[in-house]
Amino acid sequence: MNQRLSTLNEVEAAIWEELERSARDRSHPWRTCVLATAAPDSHDQAGVDARLVVLREADAATRRLLIYTDSRARKVAQMRAHPAATLVLWSTTIGWQLRCSVRCEIEDNGLTVSSRWARIKLSPGAQDYLSPLAPGTALDGQTPAAGQRENFALIIATVTRIDWMELNADGHRRAVFGDGPARWVQP
Ligand SMILES: Cc1cc2nc3c(=O)[nH]c(=O)nc-3n(C[C@H](O)[C@H](O)[C@H](O)COP(=O)(O)O)c2cc1C
Q: Residue 143: what are its φ and ψ, rounded to 5°?
């Protein structure tokens, strides 16, 4: 952003424009983001878990973000049990951090899933979902043959709140959208 936006409406519109752009543009810093989930039943963690994921689609009209995953992944079980999660995105280019509160649904069949699978099934990325072993399974020194059945699934994340922070030499700014009226807050 060359010119600083002055109103909350402008900022919110620009956030969604940028989210949509990031899902289309492989080099956009927001395309790779951190997904944090609740993991209260886990024995080896402090009740939270987080990992990098790739933002595949963003739709301002429905406020939905879409991520590809393996239906056997730990994060999937976590979100099925606790659908509230947070996506954290940062861009050095525009100096914006987003913390998106999201409610996640997992879809592993149906047209929404099969249409996305059709797009990637012939690409090298399809291998990510074809392993006969679930993500995180201990390997005993052997590389298993590729499985026949895809475990491809979608994480559909509906954004309920956005905490926006802009780092700028002229002064940092922060605003909150989505839970009540949009408002500026102390950075
Ligand atoms: C740059 C990068 C991008 C990744 N993108 C995804 C992704 O889009 N979906 C996904 O399920 N895992 C992705 N991963 C792998 C996850 O970070 C994680 O290691 C894996 O999904 C297992 O996580 P879980 O045990 O919490 O389910 C990515 C990893 C890296 C390093």
A: -95, 115
